[in-house]
């Protein structure tokens, strides 16, 4: 986190203390003050972002900056509860801002809609006073670009998005300190465990993706199975598919299922995981993915956005360990799994 972003912290007022009383009792006044002084940038206002914004704004962050250059489309109304029917055709930032401000008037809301605002030339100045960046529903290359910029400015980075019923969250907090229960001591029943300071070293997104094969070599067969590697392989295959065949995911699914199968099975082979644990992708599965991945499903967005917001607040509060570091969520079964890609 940059020194500029930490300058002149603002203390919580009596009104804020009363409003956030339950949270302060849960994680303490210091954690709430860290949230109160935090500036968060959320990029792209689709379904996952709406749920994330709702939760972090209600929790009492200091400043929210929203970026989106697009306008509201009819299909945005399904998962985008910050939009109304009369907002179709308006800039997403203009449509969402009054509804965000209504959630918590104590939070300062700023909006950006010019692509130049997040260009390589503009990002350093934007991130200088930003504590955390959350980029949603973006391409792999755009996520890597933001993550690299965040590392240059010592800013925490989150990414999240959905592909139909599937969703993901990636976390890069660089070197992150937090409190955790002391596992070296036995704790009597009904007794609070002693809390100790722990550190997690997070890799960048590009480093994490490069560690795919070595990560699974370090995990036991059971631990590998527990991460549900098929969901991670599917997300990463879709990312690569978008790079090789831009725009093809919105076309005829049957026309490109063979290409997705090839990409997915090459990726699956590179993990070194046994076919009994991670079987190859079938053409039917690929076609189904291409048919559903361009669409947002409200329940998936709601759950994933809630998980994303909760982890963002954990990272800011420093009271609990955040995800380390790649979560995948399967809306068909309602479960999520975390894979430690390159984490030390």
Describe this structure in words.
It is a single chain. This protein is 45% helix and 17% strand. The chain has 15 helices and ten strands. The chain has two domains: 217 residues, NAD(P)-binding Rossmann-like Domain (Rossmann fold); 84 residues, no CATH class. It has 344 residues and is an alpha/beta fold. Strands 3-2-1-4-5-6-9-10 form an eight-stranded mixed beta sheet, with helices on both faces.
The chain-level structural class is alpha/beta
Q: In oligomeric terms, what are we looking at?
A: single chain
Average pLDDT, to the nearest integer? 89
CA gyration radius, whole angstroms = 20 Å
Low-confidence stretches: 1-6
Tell me the helix content: 40-55%
Tally of distinct domains: 2
* Number of separate helices: 15
Report the sheet-strand fraction: 15-25%
Number of strands: 10
CATH-defined architecture of the largest domain: 3-Layer(aba) Sandwich
Give the strand line-up of the largest sheet: 3-2-1-4-5-6-9-10
Distance between the termini: 20 Å
CATH class of the largest domain: Alpha Beta
According to CATH, the homologous superfamily of the largest domain is: NAD(P)-binding Rossmann-like Domain
> Sheet bearing the most strands, described?
8 strands, mixed
Shape: globular
Fold-level CATH name of the largest domain: Rossmann fold
The arrangement of helices and strands along the chain is HHHHEHEHEHEHEEEEHHHHHHHEE
Family: Belongs to the ubiquitin-activating E1 family.
Subcellular location: Nucleus
Protein name: Ubiquitin-like 1-activating enzyme E1A
Pfam family, one: ThiF
């Amino acid at each position: 986190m940059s020194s500029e972003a930490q300058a002149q912290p603002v203390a919580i007022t009596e009104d804020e203390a009363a409003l956030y009383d339950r949270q302060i009792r849960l994680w303490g006044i210091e954690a709430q003050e860290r949230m109160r002084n935090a500036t968060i940038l959320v990029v792209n206002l689709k379904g996952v972002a709406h749920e994330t914004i709702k939760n972090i704004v209600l929790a009492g962050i200091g400043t929210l900056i929203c970026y989106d250059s697009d306008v509201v489309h009819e299909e945005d109304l399904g998962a985008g509860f910050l939009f109304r029917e009369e907002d179709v055709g308006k800039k997403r930032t203009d449509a969402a801002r009054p509804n965000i401000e209504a959630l918590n008037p104590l939070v300062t809301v700023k909006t950006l809609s010019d692509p130049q605002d997040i260009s390589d030339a503009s990002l350093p100045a934007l991130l200088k006073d930003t504590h955390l960046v959350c980029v949603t529903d973006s391409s792999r290359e755009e996520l890597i670009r933001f993550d690299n910029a965040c590392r240059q400015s010592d800013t925490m980075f989150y990414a999240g998005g959905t592909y139909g019923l599937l969703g993901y969250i990636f976390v890069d907090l660089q070197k992150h300190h937090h409190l955790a229960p002391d596992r070296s001591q036995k704790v009597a029943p009904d007794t609070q465990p002693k809390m100790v300071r722990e550190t997690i070293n997070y890799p960048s997104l590009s480093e994490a993706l490069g560690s795919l094969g070595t990560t699974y070599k370090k995990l036991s067969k059971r631990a590998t199975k527990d991460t549900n590697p098929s969901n991670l392989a599917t997300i990463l295959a879709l990312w690569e598919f978008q790079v090789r065949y831009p725009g093809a995911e919105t076309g005829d699914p049957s026309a490109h299922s063979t290409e997705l199968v090839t990409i997915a099975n090459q990726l699956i082979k590179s993990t070194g995981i046994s076919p009994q644990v991670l079987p190859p992708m079938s053409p039917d599965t690929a076609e189904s993915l291409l048919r559903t991945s361009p669409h947002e499903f409200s329940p998936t967005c709601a759950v994933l956005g809630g998980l994303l917001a909760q982890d963002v607040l954990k990272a800011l509060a420093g009271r609990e360990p955040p995800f380390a570091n790649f979560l995948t969520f399967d809306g068909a079964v309602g479960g999520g799994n975390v894979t430690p890609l390159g984490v030390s």
